[in-house]
Amino acid sequence: MSDSSAPVLAAFDLDGTLTEGGSVFEWLRFIAGRSTANRAAFALAFPLVVGAIRSGESADNAKERLFHSLLAGRDVAEVTERSRNFAIEHLRTHLRERVAARLSWHLEQGHDVVIVSASPQIYVDVMAAEVKAHGALGTRLAVDARDRFTGSYLGKNCRGTEKLRRLQEWIDERGYPSPPEIYAYGNSRGDRRLLRGADHPYAAGKLGRLGSLRGFARLPKATPDDAIAGESKD
Asked: 108-122: per-residue pLDDT in tens?
């Protein structure tokens, strides 16, 4: 049973949960150009496919190699500005209204909301601000002394165990008077650790019983307030 006096935190994955599909490759195309990004992905097709199948470290390494190919040497200020434009447009066209309604419900209840994503922090920050989330945790990118991207991660890819670690780090920095009651929403196997660390985990993907999170409760079709309102009309 949850403690009604405890602070409440809702953690939302981004790609496939709050938004439709993936955003990383579309972002890379936006930054580097469609043809350049396509050529880089083709050159790394084998490790990218292996990473998609195996997940884990294989996926992390393949993604970092693609980042290095397309981002190394690019000016941080320029990429940051372009990433903001990308993030706003992507959110406008790919937001999943049902999950967004759930996020809004948490905000209306006074809960803290955090976006936790393997997508780059550079645009997860923007999307989080657009939906009025209190925090954004994404994959951080390394920068050299000339303020240019190295193409490597700063730390780890924010997926799996790293998602839960980063969320706990954010909680510790927040300085809650007591451990928060945690809701978590995800759609893929990279979200399993995050969901397992939550008091109220929900699978928000579209595959249902066929998805990798089939062992978790499905996201209800209505927000809790909607359900209560519906019951009062009977």
From this structure: 999 999 999 999 999
